[in-house]
Amino acid sequence: MITSLDKIKKFSFVEKLHHFHSIESTNTFAKSLKGLPKDGIVVVCADRQTAGRGQRQNTFFSEAKGGVFASIVCPVADIGLHFIDNRAISLAIYDAVKSTCPAARLSIKWPNDIYWGNKKLCGILLENIPQSSGYIVVGFGINVNIALQTFPEDIRDIATSLLIETGKKHSEFVLLGKILDWFWKYLPLDIAAAHLLYVNRLYKTGSDCEVNGQKGVFEGVLEDGRMRLRTGDKEILLSSGPVRF
After folding, report:
1. What's the predicted TM-score (pTM) here?
2. Pair 18, 8: CB distance under 8 Å
3. 24 and 102 co-located in one domain
4. Cα–Cα distance measured from residue 168 to residue 70, given in angstroms and rounded to the nearest whole number
5. Number of domains the chain is built from
6. Domain identity same for 160 and 216
7. Whole domain around residue 17: which residue ranges?
8. Which pLDDT tens digit goes with each residue over 79-121?
9. Residues 95 and 214 in one domain
């Protein structure tokens, strides 16, 4: 029987796929790899993570099976242009989920969380590889077949899954295959065209918010990934920070 993982291995741009039933963190493993891709990508995926990580050293719930937990290692010409990869994976996950669940009310919360309605469906973490400056690790975790009661109590009001939203299960590896396919198509796309898609899918553009103690109106995102925050008659550009609406 040909499995979804076998199909991913046959993608022309996937040079190597590492699959684990359980691992501490796919990003951590990916950053330790010696066999780095030459022209395509290397993929690391796991059924569960025991020490999943999110932005700003936060943990990401991934101890339970039922999610897509993966990292992509890919070459970069300039690590300073990493938002190209950030934008590509955000759009890829959006499209993959939308093709799986056409009624999904999806948006991208800057810089790269994927939301269904007002709840977080997916987190993304990009990291460089200190010993290999020409590469980047694009990690992501998507809640697919995780039931509400499986989430820790403190995040049940802010997290969701495809199972919760649709009432049925979906194939994690079919979804992963779709994401990788879309990611590889988005990477070389003209920056202006890709960015137009990204900004049109942003979460709560035009809303009041607070970032790093600064309050204002979220007006959008520049092509280089900086957030535009309007405070009175002044525009502030922010490179990072948690956004609270």
Report:
1. 0.94
2. no
3. yes
4. 22
5. 2
6. no
7. 4-200
8. 899 999 999 999 999 999 999 999 999 999 999 899 999 999 9
9. no
